[in-house]
Amino acid sequence: MRITAGSMRSRIVAVADVPGLRPTPSKVRQALFNMLGPVDGFDLLDLFSGSGIIALEALSRGAKSATSIEHNHIAIKGLKQSRQLLKLENHWDIQQTSVEKALKFLAGSSFDLIFADPPYAQGEAEKMIQLLDQHDISCQQLVIEESSRYEPVWPQGWICQDSRRYGDSSLHFLLRK
After folding, report:
1. Which residues contact 59 (CB under 8 A, 6 or more apart)?
2. What number is the average pLDDT over the span 53-82?
3. Residue ranges per domain, the chain?
4. Could you give the percent of the chain with pLDDT greater than 90?
5. What are the Cα distances from residue 169, in Å, to 32, 55, 119, 150?
6. 26-176: which CATH number, 3.40.1620.10, 3.10.310.10, 3.40.50.150, 3.90.1170.50?
7. With contact defined as beta carbons under 8 Å apart, do 117 and 55 qualify?
8. What is the mean pLDDT of residues 148-155?
9. How many CA atoms lie within 13 A of 4 on its CB side?
10. Whole-model pTM?
């Protein structure tokens, strides 16, 4: 898999062989960052990080920092190898834990962008948003990648300002009311 833009453009990133891991396709990543606009100086929280490609795209495009949360130990090994290979130790924090535990630990934190790519169609997106509220974690923009065949029901207090479909995936752009 290749990073699509920025200072690390065209760098190849290895993807761990983990059942169910589905890295965000390049077309969807390009569309995401085109819609977001410049991310220079952003602090990113990448939930259900998987391959880490969203964190890498953000860092390549000028984000100040990325925090990736991933539970699978094989995926974590791949993330750490990518971080070392690309010399991002000072900018990319990688945590092996569940999203629920991570959000409890991050209580009261603020991020410019939170990106989440939970397991498709299992209600994890809605649950994760409730945890953001419960732990008072704020963001300027929340983006959730979900199956295009699944229509999430967003918790009260959140507005989906835009949704875009890309094949089997949809990106949902949410803001707090």
Report:
1. 6, 8, 44, 66, 88, 91, 92
2. 97
3. 26-176
4. 82
5. 12, 18, 12, 9
6. 3.40.50.150
7. no
8. 89
9. 16
10. 0.94
